[in-house]
Write a structure and sequence with these properties.
By secondary structure, the protein is α+β, with helices and mostly antiparallel strands. It is built from seven helices and ten strands. The strands form two sheets. It has a five-stranded mixed β-barrel with strand order 1-2-3-5-4. A hairpin with a 2-residue loop joins strand 1 and strand 2. Helix 1 runs antiparallel to helix 2. The protein is extended. It starts with a helix and ends with a helix.
Length: 343
């Protein structure tokens, strides 16, 4: 039996470690993206640039700008962001740009906040994974043992794959290598005008194909978006009723009920509590998860409406609004995309 218990603890520790490692990776990526965005905001100079063309990198287009520094020197620089669309890349358009004085061949649109948003999303995922790892399984000896093995293995892999000195960030050789790579990219991606690209037969054929697809899928997008908006409104109405007419009472997790109705089974907490009238009641919460978010014996707060036993739910604070908020948000986004396609 002891061996079986050790195996269970080991599997739990491994699952917890996977979540913690994922949280660490997502947090590192998010912090790097936010740090890079903050670096540009602090150290870059704001200049006005005129779009002189685009460079194509496979299916991505990057704008090329001509700008003048306060010193009076003019440079041509490629944006460090790109997309597969030529919309807004008309030759001669002016933009507010950010440029680093030591890297005059690369600019960033001052109005762009893509990497900031992506970095915040990575950080949000990291926080969720970290919270889930600590909530689902307690830290124990098996966890620390698994962490030690993971750190030893990671250290060995990092030691094996460490970059040579001539390729390290900040060295003169590294800067020269980056300059050579950019020159090579510029050589294979000549400067083009967006108007000339749009005039090619291939581009026109692709535009017609995309327009036909938009006409076919736009009604479905609008219908699905409207359904999500309706669902969000219904969930919000139910929650508003609970928040305005409901009561709160302390409760505890009596057990976890496993349901395999979905492709991957979920654990639903069964909660027991005493209402304001002194009646002891129990219910199965409507939200399940795998791994389970609670353990038997955990204390929770119950939100319920007196005389409506089916209305009882675990009060998760602001998390209560996530289902309705996300439904409304995605519904609004789908409707916005659909209306833009119609235009």
């Amino acid at each position: 039996m002891k061996v079986f218990e050790y195996l269970i603890d080991g599997f739990a520790a491994f699952n917890q470690l996977v979540l913690l490692a994922g949280a660490l990776i997502c947090g590192a990526v998010g912090a790097a993206l936010l740090g890079n965005a903050l670096f540009w905001k602090i150290h870059a100079i704001r200049v006005q640039g005129r779009l002189i063309g685009v460079r194509q990198y496979q299916n991505m287009f990057r704008s090329v700008y001509r700008y003048t520094l306060p010193s009076g020197q003019s440079y041509d620089a490629t944006s460090n962001e790109g997309s597969g669309s030529l919309k807004g890349r008309e030759t001669g358009a002016t933009r507010s740009l950010l440029v680093l004085p030591e890297h005059t061949d690369e600019v960033q649109e001052a109005s762009s906040h893509v990497w900031t948003v992506v970095g915040l999303l990575f950080l949000a995922v990291a926080v969720w994974m970290f919270r889930a790892a600590l909530k689902a399984w307690p830290l124990g000896p098996a966890t620390w043992l698994a962490v030690g093995v993971f750190l030893l293995y990671s250290g060995f892999r990092i030691w094996r794959s460490v970059l040579p000195a001539e390729k390290r960030l900040g060295s003169a050789n590294f800067k020269a290598m980056i300059a050579q790579r950019r020159a090579a990219d510029a050589a294979v991606s000549p400067l083009l005008r967006s108007e000339d690209i749009r005039a090619t037969p291939d581009w026109r054929a692709n535009e017609e194909k995309q327009q036909a697809l938009r006409k076919r899928w736009t009604p479905a997008l609008l219908l699905f978006g409207a359904a999500l908006l309706t669902l969000g409104a219904f969930l919000s109405r139910t929650l508003v009723h609970l928040e305005s007419a409901g009561l709160r009472a302390p409760g505890s997790i009596q057990s976890l009920e496993y349901s395999s109705s979905q492709r991957r089974g979920s654990y639903y907490p069964v909660v027991i509590f005493t209402d304001a009238g002194g009646t002891r009641a129990s219910f199965r919460d409507r939200i399940g998860s795998n791994p389970p978010a609670f353990r038997a014996g955990d204390a929770v707060t119950v939100l319920y409406v007196s005389g409506e036993p089916r209305s009882a739910m675990i009060d998760r604070g602001w998390v209560n609004w996530l289902p309705s908020g996300l439904s409304a948000l995605f519904g609004a986004l789908l409707c916005l995309v659909g209306f833009r396609a119609l235009r």
